[in-house]
Design goal:
Elements: H1 2-8, E1 14-18, H2 23-33, E2 40-43, H3 48-58, E3 62-66, H4 83-100, E4 104-107, H5 121-125, E5 128-133, E6 140-148, E7 156-162, E8 165-168, H6 172-176, E9 187-194, E10 197-209, E11 217-220, H7 224-236, E12 245-251, H8 263-275, E13 283-285, E14 288-289, E15 295-296, H9 301-310, E16 315-319, E17 333-337, H10 340-346
Parallel strand pairs: 1-2, 1-3, 3-4, 11-12, 13-16, 16-17
Antiparallel strand pairs: 5-6, 6-7, 7-8, 9-10, 10-12, 14-15
């Protein structure tokens, strides 16, 4: 947030209200990040009344409240962070922002489940909800919009965490595929769509004999229940015997994929690992799979295909229904399939 408001302060006055840390703590961080904007002001305050007074005096172009859970108003007797305090303070700050036309950022805590802590009404009151997420074991972070009254949702920004702060990743696809092992069973590339932005990521699967009475099923980066459904389709419709196997699926790079377009790639990775046969390294796969094994068309297939072609992939396996109105990029071969069973004939080199 400090880096972001530093950029904003180059085009106007910004006020950063730090209600959790002292000004000295924030100053030390600002020096490490190289924050140099002259129009960035810092205020260590938790009283809403005092914050409003300072805003009236400074009349900033941008306002940051860090964090909303620590702000309190004298009009309510409950402790800071309580439901009533968070709701009332957020409501008054929203009126201030709307009334004076000040873009305002409210930094909020999240629970262990990754959702906004405190009353859900906070999510409904604001115009945009941004989540800053990422696997602690990876240096990459994703800024994701899950609500936006002024534009499309599910847009993301990808950043790399460094000692000097966040660095924008202008080409996430190359980043997520940088360490991809080629010609290894269980590895496949899928062109996923985050909002309107296509991103190529590596999806990995490992199928091995189970040493327990109940086979293990672990999914990282995709929905666990969706993976179980696809395993059942492979077992019933493609006739790959996976019932007694331990199955692990992982999306490399700490990315989370929630769209059904990754179904076909998941099935391909599982089949590749089970049969111990590598998928052609220059092949990308996407498509939704139904319960009867049929492969369904997905949104924005042309964006996905063009992104794959731009990164040097030469073959794309996709739903037959998505072939309509797609002009294959130069050097790209499109293979349309109607059923998951047809996939086995196409993916292996």
């Amino acid at each position: 947030m400090l880096q972001a408001v530093d950029q904003l302060a180059t085009s106007g006055t910004a006020l950063y209200v730090t209600a959790e840390e002292s000004t000295r703590q924030v100053k030390l961080r600002a020096e490490r990040l190289g924050t140099t904007a002259k129009n960035l002001y810092l205020l260590a305050e938790t009283s809403l009344e005092q914050i409003r007074k300072r805003v009236a005096e400074l009349n900033p172009d941008f306002l940051v409240i860090d964090s909303i859970q620590t702000i309190f108003t004298n009009s309510i007797e409950s402790a800071p962070g309580s439901v009533s305090q968070v709701r009332e303070c957020a409501g008054q700050l929203m009126l201030l922002a709307k009334g004076q036309g000040i873009p305002t950022f409210l930094v909020g805590h999240v629970t262990k489940d990754g959702v906004i802590a405190g009353p859900r009404v906070l999510e409904h009151m604001v115009d945009t909800v941004l989540y800053f997420e990422g696997d602690p074991g990876h240096p990459y972070r994703i800024l994701r919009a899950v609500k936006n009254r002024f534009g499309s949702t599910n847009e993301i920004g990808v950043f790399e965490m460094r000692e000097s702060g966040l660095r924008e990743v202008t080409n996430p696809s190359e980043l997520f595929l940088a360490e991809r092992p080629e010609k290894n069973p269980g590895s496949v590339v899928v062109p996923a769509l985050e909002g309107t932005r296509p991103i190529l990521v590596e999806l990995q699967a490992l199928v091995s004999g189970s040493s327990f009475g109940t086979p293990q099923r672990t999914a990282i980066g995709i929905d666990h229940k969706r993976m179980a459904l696809l395993v059942a389709i492979l077992d019933k419709k493609v006739e790959l015997q996976l019932a007694g196997q331990d199955i692990f699926v992982n999306v490399a790079g700490g990315v989370r994929l929630d769209e059904p377009a990754v179904d076909l790639a998941t099935i391909a990775a599982l089949a590749s690992s089970h049969l111990n046969r590598a998928i052609e390294p220059q092949t990308v796969i996407f498509g939704e799979v139904g319960l009867t094994g049929e492969v369904r068309a997905v949104s924005q297939p042309e964006l996905r295909v063009n992104e794959a072609a731009r990164l040097g992939f030469t073959r794309c396996i996709l739903p037959f229904g998505s072939l309509k109105n797609i002009k294959p990029p130069k050097g790209m071969k499109l293979v349309g399939i109607r059923h998951a069973s047809e996939l086995m004939e196409q993916i292996f080199d």
